[in-house]
Every structure is written in C-alpha cells, then in structure tokens.
Amino acid sequence: MEPTRVMIGVNQSSIKGYPYPSISSQRAFEWTLQKIIRDNTSGFKLVFLHVQVPDEDGFNDMDSIYASPEDFKSMKNREKKRGLHLLEYFVNRCHEIGVACEAWIQKGDPQETICHEVKRVQPDFLVVGCRGLGPFQRVFVGTVSEFCVKHAECPVITIKRRAEDTPQDPVDD
Amino acid sequence: MEPTRVMIGVNQSSIKGYPYPSISSQRAFEWTLQKIIRDNTSGFKLVFLHVQVPDEDGFNDMDSIYASPEDFKSMKNREKKRGLHLLEYFVNRCHEIGVACEAWIQKGDPQETICHEVKRVQPDFLVVGCRGLGPFQRVFVGTVSEFCVKHAECPVITIKRRAEDTPQDPVDD
C-alpha cells in the first residue's frame, strides 16, 4: 500500500524572517503530525513546498550594492539559500520522527504556484496554515488558504493558528 | 494518547432514498479510511452525524393518512428510523474494520446543525462530501461544504465525488 502523500505549504516568519517558519505553517505541520500521522510514520510521506515571492523592485537586501548582473544572480542564490534553511527545519523534524519527506522551492505567486504544484505532484491532500484573520483584515491581506480551498485539484485542509500563538498584530506571523 | 476524533457528515442518496448513503458521503467515508486512518485503526474515532431536514409541509409520505397528532408522531418516528438505517451502514463498516465510532441524528438545517454540533462535540476535524458542482449549479443547490469550511470551529476537509461516480444529473446523488 502506497503511503498517503500530504503536501504542506510552508513560508517564513514575517517577523523573524528566514530561516524561521511562520507560526501558521509550523502549526499546520505539527497538527498533521499529531492528528493525522500519529505513530503511523510509515503510512505517510510529507511533501513540503515553499513558494518565494519575487521582490517587485529587486531590492531585498538594502545593504548590498548591485553593480552587475552577477550581483543580482548572487542575490537570487542567497534568497534561495534562505529558503533552503527554512525547508531544512521541516526536513530535520521529519528525519527525527522517521517520516519520509521531500521539499522544494518555487518562485512565484504563492496561491497560483501551490495550485500549479498540486496539479503536477498530485498529493492525496494539501495542508495549509492560515492566520485566522477576521473578514475586515482578510480583505487587505488576501488569504492563500481560501484560494487553495477553491482552486486546488485535491482535498485541502486549512489549519488555523492557535489564539495563544497569535502575535499582537494578527497580520504578522 | 487520545484517538483523533473525526466527524463525518452523512446523508441519504437523493436518488435511492433511505437507507442508501449519498455517493458523496460514502466517498468521504471511504477516503477517510483509505488516506487518513489506513491501518492505524486504534488511532482514530469516527463520529457520524446525520442531519434530517424537516419536511416543510409535513407530508413526506404521500400514501399515508394523517388524521391525528399520533399519526404525525408515528411519521416522525418512521423518518428517524430510516435515518438510523443509514447510520447502521456506516457503523457496520466501522465494526468490520475495527474502528471505534459513534453516530447520531439531528433535525434541522444541515449546514447550521453540522456547525452547531462541531461546537458541541469538538472533533479534531470534520470531513464532508461534496458533489463538485460547477459555479452555475452551486448557486441553485447551495453547498453545505462551503458553509462548513467558512463557519465550522474546527479544520474541515471537503471530499469531492469522483467523476466516474457522478450520476447523469450532477445535482442528484
């Protein structure tokens, strides 16, 4: 019997930055371990997807000087490397517990990219964290999870951040 | 470690009636067994909820004569009994497989009642089937699953009916 393949969308903390996972993606991961996988570690395979949003003006590192195409290239590599450190966190946890996993990075719009990867990878289901914002906040922030619930071609389960984990500004992560 | 408590909303087939489960609720149940529970039967407890919609004019059985309050009472009991036969199907399957379960019937509006029961019973997550209708059909049919995703106070996973199981009229079940 093939293991159940669970895709989990993960992103970095908007407060602490890389390599720290956001509270909501960490919560989605821990919830999946506790409530779904439990002690059946051989029955599941986790596939982690991290989508990096390309910076619109290309200046993520304000303290760096970009004088040549090479400099931009090195910046891109640096960003990617930070993404890898984020994934390392999840892969290490899986290794400790003994759950098979895969992890990769894509650049693009998070919601579109997640749905595209679902189509390509065909997981049994997708887990996404969400910040549990009120309707007023949602209008401005937009929610990746709502988009995925509507558009992903597999079942989707949305895990809300716990009240006690919510930072003062609920939009932050 | 407490078992993971999974609530599954189940209803009867709109084509075959009681005691046959709808294609989408049967699919939601089988999916949960295959993809989540797998062979970890002791790690989970299924809680089945069937919501009966009260008939607006009170005449579900056109061939019966209602001459006294007692007749109406017996009708209600008959309805309830049919609901019990529906639940019997799921409880029997669980018993065969060795998964702990509970099942009960409530009267009311399905989406409101499911969300109310989630609040009361506090399952770890809720599984609901859905017919996978297009946006045009959804406007007329309304979808219980969309309402639950938005309003239930626990994570919700929506399982779509498979294409090959879809009857000629996709609104039917």
Automatic annotation (TrEMBL), chains A, B:
Signal sequence interval, chain numbering: none
CDD domains: USP_At3g01520-like
Domain UspA: 21-160
SUPFAM superfamilies: Adenine nucleotide alpha hydrolases-like
Pfam families per UniProt: Usp
GO MF annotation terms: AMP binding
Name of protein: UspA domain-containing protein
Source organism of this protein record: Carnegiea gigantea
